[in-house]
Amino acid sequence: MKTLFKVAAVAVAAAAAVGVQAQDFPSKDKTITIVVPYAAGGPTDRVARDLAEAMRKPLGGVSVVIDNSAGAGSTIGTAKVARAAPDGYTLLLNHVSMATMPTMYRKLAFNVANDFEYLGIINDVPMTLIARPSMAANNYKDLSAWIAQNKGKINLGNAGQGSASHLCGLMYQSALQVDMTPVPYKGTAPAITDLIGGQIDLLCDQTTNTTSQIEGKKVKAYAVTTAKRLTTPALKDLPTLAESGLKDFSVTIWHGLYAPKGTPAPVLKKLNDALKAALKDPDFIKKEEGLGAVVATDARVEPAEHKKFVLSETEKFGAVIKAAGSYAD
């Protein structure tokens, strides 16, 4: 009986400690770290830095910093957060990789569905299909004819295994039922450099990376991957791939925010409230629009809908990855 009372007392004490911790969260004596599993300067890093700034005020002015833990297709930084203390002071900001890693990698040090608390979707980023400037085709109809005439000879660049451009390329080839030669790079910048130089033929990448190149006429642009045309001045005249003949084709790269599994519910509530406040911040919205991104305003900003969405994306993209046999060790 004494043992039972002792166990119960320990449980009550632990619960009380968590309650105090949650009540005090966030402490101005501590720093909240958002882990970005990619290198500094890239589109996901820029989203994270803008979000960190927008979340400071609703979190009471606490310091929010970025930790770039890049490598291995975002698995290094993601694993780091999965192992972190579940106290709300270490978060993860990642993109569609959260939906592709379970299929793309044969072994992972974490379980995407079970090792994280889902806090909400941040934005959606459209993709653009672009080509080397020397490409003869001047519109998507002509490009389709060129692809049909050059099967087996087409080089399709991407920013590395598991990147947004890699995923878009797989989806595009699957929709066309045409195999192209993948040319992986260590990031988007060298891929676009080689596209401009004519070393590769095509690239499907985020508007955050391609809009300035399209504006400067350094590459040829043919279509966007969204269900509807975009309103961005440099992209508004581009047709969607769906209206160009690839029925129901739609690929957008979204970003979401996560905490380690086991983070107390009151802490999660404060973080989700701060995220939703940030998504309504006019400065944050303006910065995202400048990147070609659309800030989330739908039900996916809620944790349950965020997780439901990621699991549905995992199923959708998993089928394409399996069909292509595009796995990493």
TrEMBL record:
Keywords: Signal. Residues 1-22 form the signal peptide. The keyword Metal-binding does not apply. Gene3D superfamilies: Bordetella uptake gene, domain 1, Periplasmic binding protein-like II. Belongs to the UPF0065 (bug) family. PANTHER family: BLR1237 PROTEIN (PTHR42928:SF5), TRICARBOXYLATE-BINDING PROTEIN (PTHR42928). This is Tripartite tricarboxylate transporter substrate binding protein BugD. It comes from Paenacidovorax monticola.
